[in-house]
Each structure stands twice: as C-alpha cells, then as structure tokens.
Amino acid sequence: MKKRPNIMLLVAEDTGRHQGCYGDPVNCTPAIDSIAAAGTRYANACSTAPVCAPSRSALMMGKTAFSQGSHHMRSILKNPPKLFTEALREAGYYVNWSNKTDFNFEPRDSFADERSEWFDDLAAGKFNDRSWLLYHNFVVTHESRMWPDMWKNEVAPNLEENQRVDPAKIHVPAYLADTPEIRADLARYYESLIVQDKGVAHALAALEKSGQKENTIVIYMSDHGRGQIREKRWMYDAGIHLPLIIDAPGLIKAGAVSEEIVSWLDISATILSLCDAKQLDGAQGRIFLGPQKQPEPEYIFAGRDRMDELYDRVRVARSRQYHYIRNDFPQLPWASRLSYMETQIGTQVMRELNAQGKANAAQAYWFAAEKPAEELFDIVQDPDCVNNLATDPAFADILSAHREALAAFLEKTGDLAMKPEAELIADGLVEDQLAEYYSRVRSLPEAYRIGGMETAPVEMPVS
Fold first, then answer.
1. Fewer beta carbons within 10 Å, N or C terminal of the chain?
2. DSSP three-state, residue 401
C-alpha cells in the first residue's frame, strides 16, 4: 500500500456465523464469502456483549461497556471517552458514518466528518484525494425482521422468488425445538441475510469502481448473535461468537483462516495501528493484524447487564476451547420476560413447549427456575453450550484458570456494574432511563412464569 490504507467497515445486525464461508449449509452469502476468499476468516472472534448498544459502545471506545458505564441497554452515558473515529480524524482521516450509531451515548459531532450514504460517492471517486473510513450498518437482519409482518414489509420486497430459503435445509441448534414454526423463523432470518449480502455486494462494487480496492481494508463483522433465545442477549457461544472477515491487500494471505481469539475491543486498536493513528488512552484491546501485531492473549472477556426491563449481571472469560460464564445472580432465571423478545414466534413456541413439559433437556435448561453460579463449556465439542462442565472434577483446573483470568481482568479494567444503576445515575455518570423500562414489565401467563420473576425489577444488592 502506497499511502495510509482506507477502511471500509461493514457491520451486520443480529447476525451470527451463518455465512457460507463459515460452513453454513444454507450457503447464501456470496458477496461476504468473496471477502473471505480474498482475505482472512477469523474463527474465534467475539463481541464484548450480546446486545447492540453495549457492543457498539465497546467497539467505539476500545473499552468494555461495563468499565465505562455504557453497559445497561438503553442507558445513556453522559460523557463518553474519546472514540476511535475521533482519533482517526485527528490523524487526518475522513470519516463517514453513514447510518446507525446506537452507542448508549450520543457521540460528539467530532466523531465523524459526515453521516450520509456514501456508496454512489465512493463509486464516483469522490473520496480519492484522502484516506478514509466509510462505515455502513445493515439493519435488514435485525431480530424484528423474523417477525412475519416486518419480514413482509422490509425483506420480501428485496427477494427474488428463487431466493426463498427452504426451511428443511436449516440447521436448528440443540437448544431450540425443531418445529415448523421455528424453522420458518430461521428461514426468514436467512432470507434477510440474503438481502444483507446484496448490500455488501453493492458496497464492494462501489469500491471496485472507485479504483481504491488495492489500498482499502474491508472489514465485515456483526454486533451480536441472531435474535433467538440463548443467542442475542445471552452469554452463550451463539450470543457473542461472531463473523469477522477481513480483506487487507498486501497484509494477509487470500483464503486464510485464523484461529486466534479476537475481541471486539481489538478492532479499534488494530484500525488505528494500520492507519498510523494514535491509540486511545486506556484502550483494552490488542493489535491483531499488521506490522505492529501483538501476541494473542489466552483469554478474551465479555459481559451483559440490564437488557431493557430485564436485569442481570453476567461475565465471561473465553479461550480458544472453553467458554466460562459467571452468573452473579443465580436466583434470576434466564427465561424471565422481556417484552421485545416475547414478540418472536420462536420464543412463544419454546415457552409453550416448556409449559406443556414437551421440551427436551437441552431445551428445558434455559427455563430452569435458577441458574448455576458458574458454567463452563467446551465450545469445540459443544458449540451449542448444552453440557455444563463446571461441576465436573475433571475440569476443575480449567474452570479455576478461567475464573481467575476473569477476576484479574475486571480488577485491572473495573466493573461499574458492581454499583446499582440508581447509584450511577445519582453520581451523574448516566441519565435516568429506568422509569421507561420498568413500565414495560408485565406478567406472562401463569403457565409460562419462571422463578417468580415476572414482577417489577428490583436493584440487586452488590454481591
């Protein structure tokens, strides 16, 4: 590359590793797969949170949301730290963040030069006089597009008849029941992924026309997993183990697969390094690509906190083979009601099967009245995370190592979720959004209630 590289950052919503290049049997993503063919597919890349705003805030800050105060979904951090795009602009880059922000804070005007659709301008060579970062978010795969009415309005008009997905070809994970309704849910997801892939193809075509392809690093990634139970919002593999595909001409071998563990904290550090820009103060990620590449860590970390009206605090340490979960409030069941999630047909079907006693052990696990304090999964052998090894003496040393690594990370970086949200509000760190989300809480039908947690949420004591 003769000048500092351009960056095309393509971010999918609610999208797991269901691309053809990751071996998915539906195989409906030729444009995304072309990035992998020209570059590197990362096999062990993970978000720091299983829902959009905390995940995106960590991407922007290079720090976990729970270390900065942007960890509760739909909270608003009043004074966010410098964002990586601001550091890029200070280094002379043009930044166009075309659409969605959703960071759990309002970014300063300095975070981008423009916020406009850039595909046509790129194709016309408008940005050829300076190095740039162009961002685009693909909303079409959002959880809501699996709802039949939303699918009909937002996805179906962009599909050809021969692009409809056969539900029989879909892999149904062990924690979901294999029913026609759930297969139909998942088919709508794959059809939205087809439309997303068309958007990626549009971006790649614009880059080709610009004449800037050989000097542009293309990054495709997602914010968190698919909008199903035990995926989006939950700290299992499917919630945070995501696609990361990078084409960096001259830096990586075409068609390569990297087994290194990569965190979304690493994305900003790596972009700033590749662009010869100053790193963010206090950044928690590492540089995983390029001349300044740093050694792979043994563990990466993630967490979840309040999701709209549903309170919890969960932390994760992950290595290449094992996924450790610390549930700080075992008395809070996984399956407590969350109004947005209840709209999903798959959620309704699973609740009905469980209420009728028809869910098998892997499916019923999520409906237990309490959670174990710790969970450990061999994600190589058990990617669906249905066989908890935490109480198996044979894995005691592995459990202890992950537990200690998590504790050390939190001690080093901090965890503001150890304070009740009301205290963060009183301290002036975040705005008060609690009344809005408490107002959403209402009971499920009696047969669906899990663990008596269907009443208004209560601020849990610090453990």
1. C
2. helix
Closest CA to 460 of 315, 330, 324, 340: 330
Q: In which residue are the tokens 């592995």 written?
A: 398
Our CA angle for 42, 47, 51, nearest 5°, is 140
Q: Which residues lie closer than 8 Å to 388 by C-beta, 6 or more apart?
A: 372, 375, 376, 377
For the chain, domains (ranges, CATH) are 6-297 (3.40.720.10), 303-448 (no CATH)
Q: Is 68 helix (H, G, I), strand (E, B) or coil?
A: helix
**Residues 49-106: pLDDT tens digits?**
999 999 999 999 999 999 999 999 999 999 999 999 999 999 999 999 999 999 999 9
Among residues 437, 452, 177, which one has the least CA distance to residue 333? 452
Whether 275 contacts 424, CB under 8 Å: no
Q: How far is CA 297 from CA 301, 319, 420, in A?
A: 11, 9, 31
CB of 173 closer than 8 Å to CB of 16: no
Cα(384)–Cα(370) distance, rounded to whole angstroms?
A: 20
Residue 329, judged by CB atoms within 10 A of its CB (0-12, 13-18, 19+), counts as middle
Closest residue by Cα to residue 329 from 387, 368, 367, 372: 372
The rounded distance, in Å, linking the Cα atoms of 240 and 231 is 8
End-to-end CA distance of the chain: 52
